[in-house]
Amino acid sequence: MTSQYVLAIDQGTTSTRAVIVDHDGRVMAMGQMEHAQLLPKAGWVEHDPLEIWANVRQVVGEALAKAGLNHHHLAAVGLTNQRETTVVWNRHTGVPVCPAIVWQDTRTAPLLNELAGDSGQDKYKQRVGLPLATYFAGPKLAWILRHVAGARAGAEAGDLLFGTIDSWLIWNLTGGVDGGVHVTDVTNASRTMLMDLRTLAWDAGIAADMGVPVAMLPQIRSSSEVYGYGRDDGLLAGVPIASALGDQQAATFGQACFAPGTAKNTYGTGCFMLLNTGERPVLSQHGLLTTVAYQIGADKPVYALEGSIAVTGSLVQWLRDNLGLIASASEVEDLAATVADNGGAYIVPAFSGLYAPYWRSDARGAMVGLTRYVNRGHLARAVLEATAYQTREVVEAMEADSGVRLSELRVDGGMVANETLMQFQADQLGVPVVRPRVTETTALGAAYAAGIAVGFWSGQADVAAYWAEDKRWLPRADEAERARTYRLWKKAVTRTFDWVDDDVSA
What we know:
21 strands
């Protein structure tokens, strides 16, 4: 039987999807399930790794059933995942020692202050491209080893394994306790704060500083190669597991941002913009992250500057779930359209502190500029505008670091269906915003990387050939009004600083 398709598993912050892609880059079928967001304390965000693994099996079965396919039809499986989210599990039982600590979680702030000492937030930046921040996986692992009963002893005895979600899923997909492969790829490893950007190897010195035994870390591999094969008792029996990329890097690959200077922004739970900088890492001077964009097999790695924004789509969820102003996320655009502007209201969603370009763990969310005139519509509009303002801040930092003026921005993710947001984004950036015909770019990127690894596609030229534009928004805002609203946004951001102190740890 000819293998005509590639399956991508897209394990995200709020849900898991399985997407079947044909040789022309078309999405043929999809399965999707949400998983629980566990919030045991203020600032803590957790997931159940066993629930995620169960959901992966469920959505793979759903996608295959919808397409009328089975594992014999698949040339390869690719994986893309929420990054930084940290899992530690027992290699003999397959049971996690605690819930996964999600990338949004802020519990590691005291540990980071201890690590920084007199060296400050950029202590390891020259080696790993990242500031000391609650975002990253290494400190989350260090917290588990310190605070979960038996974890330190288990790790030192060689019984425990660490991984971001890609490692956890690949281990389970390839056999689990019966010979599961313990690997990660360079993109996910670059989000741990434990990998040297230039050698693409674990930094033993940083691991020692954090109290992390190197033996529990996965082997670092490229983003596109065969890691192992689907377990014999599963729906993917014998299928090559052939790619792993962090979700934002996968979207960069799926958007065909292969040339230095090309950029994409993904609008999901958070917003993540990546700018391809080529085969050399560029250290940011303006609050951005240096990360690995992708590595195809034995090719040289390609690097990127990244602007990470913690809260964008999840702010719409907050409006729905916490405030009850809308019944579904899709209603936010209609509610925002009931007013002409934000009525002077600004919402700065520093729920997990501020990420790029500020990196302020002490910040917390603020709603400012309120008067009795402000109504539900103004708040809905302020929620959408917050995403565009935060993106503009990241773009300005990228232009300052790279010396290149952005000519257009390729966009993807769930929020790009929101016409009001996309137009406001173009207005704030002053450049065209471009949506591709297929917006499942994260899953596509994982599928393409896996297909390339097994020869299903010949290379990146195929990816570029299948990319096509769907819609383009052109800036049309008055320059004076654009400057005024952005000035007020910047003023609002300063109101979030210094909220967390010794007796306010949330």
